[in-house]
Amino acid sequence: MSDILAKLLRPRVVSVKEESLNKAQIVIEPLERGFGHTLGNSFRRILLSSIPGYAITDVQIDGVAHEFSAIENIKEDVVEIILNLKGVAFKIHGNEQEQFNATLSKTGAGVVTAGDIQVPDGISVADPNHVICRIAGKGSINMNMIVKQGIGYEAAPVQKKDEESRSIGSLVLDASYCPIKRVSYEVENARVEQRTNLDKLILSIDTDGSITAEKAVQMAARILIEQMAVFVDFEMSAPVEEESEEEKLNPILLKPIDELEL
Length: 262
Known about the structure:
It is a single chain. The protein is 21% helix and 37% strand. The strands form five sheets. Strands 7-5-10-3-12 form a five-stranded antiparallel beta sheet. The longest helix is centred in the C-terminal third of the chain and has 20 residues, at 213-232. It folds into two domains: 10-50 and 180-232, 2-Layer Sandwich (Gyrase A, domain 2), CATH 3.30.1360; 53-176, DNA-directed RNA polymerase, insert domain (RNA Polymerase Alpha Subunit, Chain A, domain 2, Beta Complex). The termini are far apart. It is of the alpha+beta class. β1 (12-20) and β2 form a beta hairpin.
């Protein structure tokens, strides 16, 4: 069996083409017939659901008690500001952190962007031009934020279960941790020597800038391998053998009476 499996083609990454700053196309070939859709669909699902990322989960804005407030000399209301904060992506340059704090403070007329957010060393904002709000006149805005690492999507009501540990006036945000915005794939025909019934897989990936498409695919592949490893070493549990009636009987009961020394 192992000799036959060894004859299966092993694909390789033929090219990684960056179409824009946060978009890339990855071509993988040659694949055995049918493996293009098998791997393409698996990669797409994992990329959209299981790649970890960072998101603002809590924000405390000076002078704001709840999300339906308005801030003097700020054109956007608090609800709009929160929506804009959800779109801020963070890039980690060193060791990963489960959580860190960020601050924002700005005074005077102008546009407040993600580039105005102060973050710890080794961390940066993926898109410094992302607009958060607009200040009019001599207005000002000050906020403290908590940024956490996670996977997938976490609704604010789920996070509020930990409300006792939060500061008064802290607003809880829905957190979308996934750094992947869009994934699509195509399967085309490929050829190796005389074999023409092969697949070529083309992955198109859009990210939020906090991770490259190539690294995201590497991470997705590692997740898939770890999830499938259990089947590689799959062993059926040995069936429990039922004891026969003779084995269940106490051997003393089988002895003649005259041997029991009664």
